[in-house]
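Per reviewer request, we include the raw input and output of the structure prediction for the construct analysed in the revised manuscript.
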Amino acid sequence: MTNMIKMTKKLSRALIYTLAITVLAMGCTLDMAAQRRTLTIIAPAAPGGGWDQTSRNIQQVLQRGRLVRTAKVLNIPGAGGTIGLAQFVDTYDKNPDVLMTMGLIMVGAVLTNKSPVKLDRVTPVARLTGEFEVLVVPASSPYKDLNSFIEAWKKNPGSFAIAGGSAGGTDHMLAGLLAKEAGIDVTKVNYIPHSGGGESIASIVGGHVTAGINGLGELVSFIQAGQMRALAISSEQRVAGVDIPTFMEQGVNLSLANWRGVVAAPGITAPQRAELSRLVADMYESAGWQDVLKKNNWIDMYLTGPEFDAYLKTEDERAAEVLRSIGLVN
């Protein structure tokens, strides 16, 4: 009996030791997997805009949460993200260590620019955020509210230069939809496209344009600093903590939300796609990412898997309809 007890204790110790080693090995394997990964995040726009801002927030949350060893952001500006899209597809085919930030602006730019590279070439990963658009004027502008702006705009549409992001993007869509609601010929809208939010903001702050349209997260600090005046926001209801009236409460039936997400390179395997989806999910579930959403007044629009695949297809149809209605595509 004594020998049996001793043998049982030895087996128990051996089993505990084996389990401990196994758990430690699994932990080390997971940690090593994270430590091995060096991720590149393509921001298909110039520094200072929404895609750049989103990409750098992703970079910081991944690194601070030790979800990757390092993450770097590569800016490839031009043509509403379609130049970055083309380079992404051509350069990173089958590469599982690259993500590209994209969104509704790119969907519209593909259509407007008749891009030979379409979004069906990439591997969808996740939709992450949404953001409302804001119509602003320089601080020195005589227009104090939306109605006075629209009344003056109607008299001479071509003289009102409106700065925003790329042609065919969300900013451009809002300018066209606003003109349509105001009874202005959309073909006379003097929209000045920029390759990044930083450039369009500089035009607005410098008083080089009559007005500007951009995402709330990109403009809010300049509005709060008194460098520009917000006339309206494209949400259906006022955004908490932001004192900007909506278009709708000022009698203009207009609402629009931009969205941003990430996609992976073409040609990656199903397990590689699943791993990247898990990585983005881990980031999304982190306290760091929730802080990012709150800090930037971004809407949580997380969507992944087959639902995001289907969403991209329906967004292509919706964007085409909007762009046709304002005369930007046939």
